[in-house]
Design goal:
The complex is a heterodimer of chains A (409) and B (341). Chain A is built from 17 helices and 8 strands. In chain A, the strands form 3 sheets. Chain A has a 3-stranded antiparallel beta sheet with strand order 1-2-3. In chain A, helix 3 packs antiparallel against helix 4 and helix 5 runs antiparallel to helix 6. Chain A is globular and about 65 Å long. Chain B is mainly α. The radius of gyration of chain B is 20 Å and the shape is globular. Classes of the chains: A mainly alpha (409), B mainly alpha (341). Chain A: InterPro entries: ComplexI_49kDa-like (IPR052197), NADH_Q_OxRdtase_suD (IPR001135), Ni-dep_hyd_lsu (IPR001501). Chain A: It comes from Methanospirillum hungatei. Chain A: Its cofactor is Ni(2+); Fe cation.
């Protein structure tokens, strides 16, 4: 019954067709308009960091593949970078290029997957089927290179586990040409379609200033006009040798309002950019090995002795992905491993961009930052009365002090 | 005796409505799937779905109003089927043929009112579910209904008015419409008007049936099914059946208004054979109408916001409808003026 007075409360989640992963939104509604937004993540916490801190770095590397089903290589790459810094492992140049090629194919498949999800959220299922059919090609190429469609398992500390040889280039080139041919069609379907433009333009606006203040990353911040991309700001892998520019929404003549439409522009044109980057990589790839240390036993010995802390970041398809690792030189497992995925930075933007919008736009706005809850969730609060409540900093501090006491006893 | 034939007519037409409606939904799903590069479900899928729903429990939410919640699907189904009693199914007319004596006193105006009843029942059921999703869906359904009723009324009134100008006694009667296809009555200006009205009717159909782009009351990704979110089991089956019957009714209405021709006079058949052939031909026409106004539209468009639905129907379609009506009036005046000269 609608006996609830306006504003009424509309819960979305933890399980809802608009959400691909569990998260709980509570909206204060006035008719069809959102007045206030509240959300509580923590429904997809799997204790991956806890598991990692009981394993050796090579095992963690493969655990990293499983943090997220879409950006599998991003987490593994950033973790490898952090550990390589601590243990002073010299990565062969060729491995950098292999890493870059995989990372860019991952970006292509992630962005096209997102485009399909966005179309579905808008109720445009035909485009959803089309996008996911197109995506298959990049997944096929990733399988051709790594042997797996998801959880690639190609990263290794000090390089990669497989090489991309010259005789594999024709297959990669074929995929790139496939995407080049379709790009115009994609631009036409997503950006020139009347219904999509009607739904996405001036929806979920995140201004440049607020994007900066909320510390958003990746396509979300670039769509608001912030020129930031880890690949250019602090180059890793082979990105330092390559020539490419940050994609901003003005590539398609948008004035950079930072709406959902701009986020579609950025993602679609980043697919184009990735094609270009992979081409450059294939052209410039140096000869040589792809792995610094082939013997695992020796590698593990070295890692056990390594001590220090490192912090690495990469540009995952969704934005900046950071890992912090600390090793003490006494045990195999790292003393500390912290994962900060891109959605962690982007999720606070929801409160901003959902306010004042209609119910109809909630799904597409929520999806527009390409959220990944399984990357983000670090904690799940379980209480006997079923109410998680709000954890203040003081409360968390008291809990950790209590736990330290318990461990010491 | 008359009572018996009436009962037989009711049962037969109800069965026809259910079977034809589910068949149409199956065809629609296959057409849409093929356009989306998918295989799609088998033609029997809607029947299987209904059978499965009928076997399941109907869950009534704790904060629902059970009487209203359970009555809504029955009212919706009954009214959707009732519309079919008043529509000609091929050459089986509501009046004059021996079988369905029930529709004798109905005309287009009654059909228009009956078409709103399933939607009203769904609104009542939605409000009675006690879920915020269903409440929002019910509000949206009401708004959608208000939006599309006016263009629909324009289309129907304009055509009936033109028939009245032609000197026909009962322009709103279904038999009159079936016997005098509008295209043969109007002149060249009227034909343009009729095409505009056909466009209006084709656009009213997705809204009437809550299909994309006007499926805002159900909106899977927004409201997880909206009005129907709390419905399950038998109640949901009844709503699905009423949707199926409504699909036949809406497409049948378009066929009646714009394509009422039959095949049997051309083939020179009569009797039961003719009725059978015409019924199949009617189904074919219904499939064509449904393909263009439901399947094709839902494949090529994204869902509208509710305010877009209102501005589209009240702004654009009402304008197109009024222009169409104006052209038809102009056509009527030209022709009658011609008679006087």
């Amino acid at each position: 019954m609608s006996q609830k007075k306006a504003p009424y409360e509309l819960p979305i989640g933890p399980i809802h067709p608009a959400l691909k992963e569990p998260i709980n939104f509570t909206f204060q509604m006035n008719g069809e308009v959102v007045e206030k937004v509240n959300f509580s993540p923590g429904r997809a916490h799997r204790g991956i960091e806890w598991m990692g801190m009981r394993r050796n770095p090579v095992q963690i590397l493969h655990l990293c593949d499983r943090i997220c089903g879409i950006c599998g290589v991003a987490h593994a790459l950033v973790f490898a970078q952090a550990v390589e810094q601590i243990a002073d492992i010299e990565v062969p140049d060729r491995a950098y290029y292999v890493r870059t090629i995989i990372a860019e194919f991952e970006r292509i498949q992630s962005h096209i997957l997102w485009a399909g999800v966005a179309a579905h959220e808008l109720g445009f299922d035909t485009l959803f089927y089309l996008a996911w059919q197109i995506r298959e090609e990049s997944v096929d190429v990733i399988e051709y290179i790594t042997g797996n469609r998801v959880n690639y398992g190609i990263m290794m500390l000090g390089g990669t586990r497989r090489d991309i040889t010259v005789d594999m280039f024709p297959r990669l080139e074929q995929a790139l040409q496939y995407y080049e041919g379709l790009l115009e069609k994609m631009v036409n379907l997503f950006l020139n379609d009347k219904t999509i433009a009607m739904r996405c333009k001036n929806t979920g606006i995140l201004t440049k200033r607020r994007a900066l203040e909320l510390a958003t990353v990746g396509p979300t911040s670039r769509a608001s006009g912030l020129a930031m991309d880890v690949r250019i700001d602090s180059p890793y892998a082979a990105y330092g040798d390559l020539d490419f520019d940050i994609v901003l929404p003005d590539v398609y003549g948008s004035d950079g309002t930072g709406d959902v439409y701009d986020r579609i522009i950025v993602r679609i044109f980043e697919v184009k950019q990735s094609i270009d980057i992979i081409r450059q990589c294939m052209k410039q790839m140096p000869e040589g090995p792809v792995l610094a240390e082939e013997k695992y036993a020796k590698l593990l010995m070295n890692l056990k002795k390594a001590s220090g802390e490192a912090f690495a970041r990469v540009e995952a398809p969704r934005g900046e992905d950071m890992h912090y690792v600390r090793m003490n030189g006494k045990q195999e497992a790292p003393e500390m491993w912290k994962v900060k995925a891109s959605t962690y930075s982007n999720q606070m933007a929801w409160v901003e961009i959902l306010q004042g919008e209609q119910i109809a736009d909630i799904p597409i706005i929520v999806a527009s930052i390409d959220p990944c809850m399984s990357c983000t969730d670090r904690v799940a609060v379980v209480s006997t009365d079923g109410d998680a409540g709000i954890m203040t900093k003081e409360h968390l501090h008291r809990l950790s002090v209590e736990k330290t006491r318990r461990l010491q006893a | 005796m008359e009572l018996l034939t009436t009962i037989a007519g009711v049962v037969l037409i109800t069965l026809f409505g259910i079977i034809a409606g589910l068949f149409l939904i199956g065809v629609d799903r296959i057409c849409a799937a093929r356009m989306q590069m998918r295989q799609g479900p088998p033609l029997t899928q809607p029947f299987t779905d209904i059978r499965k729903l009928l076997c399941k429990d109907s869950v009534v939410p704790a904060n629902a109003i059970p009487s209203l919640f359970n009555a809504a699907p029955i009212v919706a189904f009954a009214s959707a089927v009732t519309v079919l009693f008043y529509l000609p199914l091929g050459s089986i007319l509501p009046v004059g043929t021996p079988l369905p004596m029930i529709g004798e006193y109905g005309d287009l105006i009654l059909i228009m009112y009956l078409l709103t009843v399933p939607a009203l029942a769904m609104v009542a059921g939605g409000f009675a579910s006690g879920s915020p999703y269903a409440s929002v869906g019910a509000q949206r359904e009401m708004v959608t209904m208000i939006a599309y009723e006016f263009p629909l009324a324009i289309a129907i009134v304009a055509i009936a008015w033109r028939l009245a100008v032609e000197g026909l006694v009962m322009p709103f009667s279904v038999n009159t419409l079936a016997a005098n296809p509008i295209w043969t009555v109007v002149g060249p200006v009227g034909i343009i008007g009729c095409i505009l009205l056909l466009i209006v009717l084709a656009w009213v159909t997705p809204a009437e049936l809550s299909r994309i782009p006007c499926d805002t009351p159900e909106a899977e990704t927004e409201l997880c099914g909206g009005l129907l979110v709390e419905y399950s089991g038998r109640n949901l089956a009844l709503f699905s059946l009423s949707m199926a019957a409504k699909l036949v009714a809406m497409a049948g209405l378009a066929v009646l208004l714009f394509f009422p021709w039959n095949l049997s006079p051309v083939l020179g058949m009569s009797g039961v054979m003719a009725a059978g052939v015409d019924l199949i031909f009617f189904l074919l026409k219904v499939i064509v109408v449904m393909f263009f106004s439901v399947s094709l539209v839902r494949v090529v468009m994204a869902r509208f916001r509710i305010n877009t639905v209102v501005s589209l129907y009240w702004g654009w379609l009402t304008t197109i409808g009024l222009i169409g009506m104006f052209l038809i009036i102009l056509d009527g005046s030209i022709l009658s003026a011609g008679c006087f000269l």
